[in-house]
Structure formats: C-alpha cells, structure tokens
Amino acid sequence: MQAIIYFMETKASFNLREPKSEKPTNIFLVCRTNEKQIKINIGTQYNIYPKHWDKEKQTAIIDNSLEQIFIDHHTEVNNRI
User: Fold this and answer.
1) CA angle (11 as vertex; 79, 24 as ends), nearest 5
2) Cα(14)–Cα(56) distance, rounded to whole angstroms?
3) Cβ(20)–Cβ(33) below 8 Å
4) pTM score of the predicted model
5) N or C terminus: fewer CB in 10 A for the chain?
6) H or E stretch including 16?
7) Contact criterion met (CB below 8 Å) for 28 and 40
C-alpha cells in the first residue's frame, strides 16, 4: 500500500546539523509529513558557521561587516536553498 502525501500538511525548514558548533556545519532540509521526518543534506559545499546562520529566517547572514569571501559564500548558500 502506498502512502499519500498531502503537500499542504507538509512542513519544511532548514536546520543546521550542529547549531552550537564553533566550526562550519551542514545545512539540512527537514521535511515533516504524516508524522514522519526526512532530513536531506543540501550538499557538503554549503557548510556554514552557526554564528553566520539566521535561525528565524533560515538563511545565511549577509552583512557588510563580514569578509567578502563569506558574503559570496552566503549568497551562494541562500541561492541554493
């Protein structure tokens, strides 16, 4: 028997694998539906420092106080997600 997935009842969010780490960590797409959870790694090249992650907006922070290399990387991360 196949399960029916109702997309209106599916919740998705982007979370960090290790949100309290001092090192870059993976970003996962977490989907919840039918009381089940699925985690999908968006790619190892999209690791990010937790201090550069906006948990509320679920995006990488882009701020002029950051070095250009971080701004470029965060822009790529946000475009990916």
Assistant:
1) 45
2) 10
3) no
4) 0.80
5) N
6) strand 11-16
7) yes
Q: Residue 48's closest CA among 34, 33, 69? A: 69
> What's the whole-number average pLDDT of the chain?
89
State both tokens at 21. 């780490």
Looking from the CA of 69 toward its CB, the CA atoms found within 13 Å total 1
What CA–CA distance (Å, rounded) separates 63 from 7? 34
Residues facing residue 29 across a β-bridge: 14, 40
The predicted pLDDT at position 75 comes to 96
| Residue 27 β-bridge partners | 16
Say how far residue 49 (Cα) sits from the centre of its chain.
12
d(C-alpha 17, C-alpha 64), whole Å: 26
- Is the backbone of residue 56 left (phi > 0), alpha (psi -120 to 50) or beta? alpha
